[in-house]
Amino acid sequence: GIQVEQSPPDLILQEGANSTLRCNFSDSVNNLQWFHQNPWGQLINLFYIPSGTKQNGRLSATTVATERYSLLYISSSQTTDSGVYFCAVPINWGLNGGSQGNLIFGKGTKLSVKP
Amino acid sequence: DGGITQSPKYLFRKEGQNVTLSCEQNLNHDAMYWYRQDPGQGLRLIYYSQIVNDFQKGDIAEGYSVSREKKESFPLTVTSAQKNPTAFYLCASSIGLARTGELFFGEGSRLTVL
Fold first, then answer.
1. Using CB atoms, which residue from B37, B103, B107 is nearest to A101?
2. Size of interface A-B (CB pairs under 8 A)
3. How far is B95 from chain A (nearest CA, A)?
4. Plot region of A76 (φ>0 → left; ψ -120 to 50 → alpha; else → beta)
């Protein structure tokens, strides 16, 4: 099945610094999501980005589907950005029209932003 | 406000007892999902349902059961057959099969088996 790898596994930043998180996937996909899991466990949708670039405030994401990777950029990081960032892609897209909500998750990047 | 509500947020149970976790959504989404998360890990799919009265096994369905009697509700039962039930359980929903796979999550239920 499709594999999803995220890097780095851990990242420590000083407040105000910028960072780039990477997500590699092993097969073609038509759907990719980025999530932020806060310290209380809640998963927040950041981007739904099958291809191209999107921006939302200090965060932006780029997916290059042909090269099978996606990048999440965090600029001017704040302590509230701390948590785990996951990317996820469909498990069985295209197979019997399978549900595109069946996502396989990477293991995440744990971000700690220090004041 | 529209969203996904999971209850309870925290649950303690003795070994050998069945436990049912509730998930309700008012987003009018067709598809609903249950994921399990273990410490330091990503999420793994337990069950999903694309339509009322129908559901499919995910990667780790053994020891779990679900029902989908109403569009807005998708409860998960963790049975005594589940060998390692202590985990964080997340319910999610999406509009439906082919239109979009964008997933939205509830706040989760943390189950501890003593």
1. B103
2. 78
3. 9
4. left
Q: What is the pLDDT of residues B55-96, one digit of tens each?
A: 999 889 999 999 999 999 999 999 988 889 999 999 999 887
- Residue A72 scores a pLDDT above 90: yes
Best of B55, B60, B102 to substitute, by most chain A Cβ atoms within 10 angstroms, is B102
The pair of three-digit structure tokens given for residue A62, joined into one six-digit string: 């780029």
For the segment A53-69, the average pLDDT, to the nearest whole number, is 96
For residue B53, the tally of other CB atoms under 10 A from its CB is 9
Place of tokens 């987003």: B27
Give Cα separations from A67 to A9, A26, A64, A100, B112 (angstroms): 21, 10, 6, 21, 41
- Answer whether B103 sits within 8 Å of A33, measured CB to CB: yes
- Which residue among A33, A41, A103 sits closest to B108, beta carbon to beta carbon? A41
Residue A98 has pLDDT above 70, yes or no: no
Q: Name the DSSP letter for residue B61.
A: -
Partner-chain contact B42 A42, CB within 8 Å = no
Residues facing residue A34 across a β-bridge: A47, A87
The pLDDT of residue B98: 54
pLDDT for residue B97: 59
- Taking contacts as CB-CB distances below 8 angstroms, the residues of chain B near A31 are 100-102
